[in-house]
Automatic annotation (TrEMBL):
EC top class, as a word: transferase
Keyword set includes Metal-binding: yes
InterPro entries: DHP_synth-like, DHP_synth_dom, Dihydropteroate_synth-like_sf, Pterin-binding_dom
Family membership noted in the UniProt record: Belongs to the DHPS family.
Cofactor(s) annotated in UniProt: Mg(2+)
Pfam families: Pterin_bind
Keyword tRNA-binding set for record: no
Tree of life domain: Bacteria
Gene3D superfamilies from the UniProt entry: Dihydropteroate synthase-like
Protein name per Swiss-Prot or TrEMBL: Dihydropteroate synthase
NCBIfam families xrefs: DHPS
Reactions the enzyme catalyzes: (7,8-dihydropterin-6-yl)methyl diphosphate + 4-aminobenzoate = 7,8-dihydropteroate + diphosphate
Lineage summary: Bacteria, Pseudomonadati, Pseudomonadota, Alphaproteobacteria, Acetobacterales
Length: 285
């Protein structure tokens, strides 16, 4: 089943009040400087090993990126970005893995889609590169449009800012011919927001989904807000990540983007078992 077909099946269940389990996106950073695991999977061999491990743990798809998006990141040109991505994406696509490419560059996205990637995850919501929307449309790919801001401003009304940003992105998508059923919105937790704005973004995901009639992707894995709120270092943020992603799933997240796939698979599967109506009664174990 393609990613577009998986999304269609998820969307078909939207009128139901019962539990809708989100798709689980595993993160593979082919970078030396990502905030959480920079350098761990920088070589193609290490990245492929991690990708296979995440798939074995239950990832529905993998999001592969080769340029860090953390604050103060070192920019990477398109040629270098593709040099890092190609030896990872090509073999995974040949193996039949469902893949997303995390990039803001249309030229990189085009090559990835030709190689067999099914989704583009753009942290600037089609607005950084004027050719991105047409590249996505030509391939019929799924696209995640994420909200972002250049400057953190506690006085900003985030709902108004969301609408201005997403209205512009969706106009770009519509003009290029991107099908609505292939679009996800990402509230942009951790990107150009205060800690309280990040929390508000998670709390208002359902409002965002309802306003645009589009599914939502949530990415909070190991983010700095957990350090600021709880005093936890990067690799001690799994419990907090699980809590927020479970909350996000109950608020209608279609997809959650995570580093720790097995823990999330177990959490989501157990929640699904508990939420299923008509389970056999009388079981005690």
């Amino acid at each position: 089943m393609t990613l577009a077909e998986q999304m269609a099946a998820w969307l078909a269940a939207r009128p139901s009040p019962s539990w809708r389990q989100p798709l689980l996106m595993g993160i593979v950073n082919v970078t030396p400087d990502s905030f959480s695991d920079g350098g761990q999977f920088f070589t193609p061999e290490a990245a492929l090993k991690q990708a296979h491990a995440l798939l074995a743990e239950g990832a529905d798809l993998l999001d592969v990126g080769a340029e860090s998006t953390r604050p103060g990141f070192t920019p990477v040109d398109a040629e270098e970005e593709w040099r890092r991505l190609e030896p990872v994406l090509t073999p995974l696509a040949r193996e039949g893995a469902v893949l997303s490419v995390d990039t803001t560059k249309a030229s990189v996205a085009r090559k990835a889609l030709v190689a067999g990637v099914q989704m583009v995850n753009d942290v600037w919501g089609l607005q950084a590169d004027p050719d991105m929307a047409s590249v996505v449309a030509s391939a019929g790919a799924v696209v995640a449009i994420m909200h972002n801001r250049e400057v953190v401003d506690a006085s900003v009304d985030l709902w108004d800012d969301w609408r201005r940003f997403f209205d512009r992105s969706l106009k770009l998508a519509d003009r290029a011919g991107i099908a609505r059923e292939t679009i996800l919105l990402d509230p942009g937790v951790g990107f150009g927001k205060t800690v309280m704005q990040n929390l508000w973004a998670v709390q208002n995901m359902r409002r965002l989904e309802a306003y645009y009639g589009l599914p939502v992707l949530l990415g909070v894995s190991r983010k700095s807000m957990f350090g600021r709120l709880l005093g936890r270092e990067v690799h001690d943020r799994l419990p907090a990540t699980l809590a927020v992603n479970l909350y996000g799933a109950t608020q209608g997240a279609c997809m959650v983007r995570v580093h720790d796939v097995q823990a999330h698979r177990d959490m989501l599967d157990m929640t699904a078992l508990l939420a299923v109506n008509g389970m056999v009664k009388g079981d005690v174990e």
